[in-house]
Amino acid sequence: MKNPFSATAKALRTIGTQAKVALTGTPVENNLSELWALLDWTTPGLLGPLKVFRDRYARDVESGQDPQAAERLAALVRPFLLRRKKSDPGIAPELPPKTETDRAVALTKEQIALYEAVVRETLAEIGRSAGIARRGLVVKLLTALKQICNHPAQYLKEQGGTIAGRSGKIELLDELLDTILSEDGAVLVFTQYTAMARLIEAHLTARSVPAQFLHGGTPVSRREEMVRRFQDGEAPVFLLSLKAAGTGLNLTRAGHVIHFDRWWNPAVEDQATDRAYRIGQTQPVQVHRMIAEGTVEDRIAEMLKRKKDLAESVLSGGEAAFTELTDAELADLVRLQVSPR
């Protein structure tokens, strides 16, 4: 429905009715056109045609260039929206507190060497490219750098190589898990990369840490069994694919949520965190977001925070926004700003 050009949206618009109600947990996930699609169906004409809405409101709000644009749009749509959050008074008073922490980690010497080499070689290639080819190279660069920040073995596509001692994130993960498990706690570990989850799974197996991994290919019956084992305390570490397991699961035994890497918008991360922080949770929840300091992850984290603060909405289209940066802006985004340990 949030895509006005989808077959579902087109079919819904053909149904005649006296009243329409749209129910969603994320009215804006990628850009403000999604909000337009919902309101243009429930209240046709309120925001005008999509092109007019983009020109009059969306571009200024999404870019942050006009702080009053968000206020004008909010005032216009407020009478037609009923928003409720778990944190609102009286909605879920039984929910315990939630603490969110950004955990800065340092790159290893191997990660630094890989990071600098990829930046140097890919920026030179981008400088010689244009159009779609250039956009593709930018996405490829960002993906490679995020993988290097996770672990060299992920970027290098190693099979069966050494995992310990090569990644600052793995070192921090070990420290967190040692503390959590010593207190008989349980933890969810989210990553957007199946390959990285496999590496973590192998690493934890080598350390005799009981863990299980749920991903997009996990059969429904197996998913239900894994959830039961986690909730019953049989497997206190639950590795989860962010997109495959970010919704629809009740994992309230977890008192900790670790985001091993960052997705392109905070709404997806929040939905993943809500597998643990939901009605029925009785213990405080601590959220740990791992960020490789001085890298592109640092700058992405800053951008995501600005987007989340601005009208509490996700106001751009993920990595697509980065493909339009100039060469100089892109170089500043990916420049490494740390020294070897």
UniProtKB/TrEMBL annotation:
One of its GO terms (molecular function) is ATP binding. InterPro entries: Helicase_C-like, P-loop_NTPase, SNF2-like_sf, SNF2/RAD54-like_C, SNF2_N, SNF2_RAD54_helicase_repair. Keywords: Hydrolase. Residues 172-326 form the Helicase C-terminal domain. SUPFAM superfamilies: P-loop containing nucleoside triphosphate hydrolases. Pfam families: Helicase_C, SNF2-rel_dom. SMART domains: HELICc (SM00490). This is Helicase C-terminal domain-containing protein. It comes from Streptomyces microflavus (Streptomyces lipmanii). The lineage of its organism: Bacteria, Bacillati, Actinomycetota, Actinomycetes, Kitasatosporales.
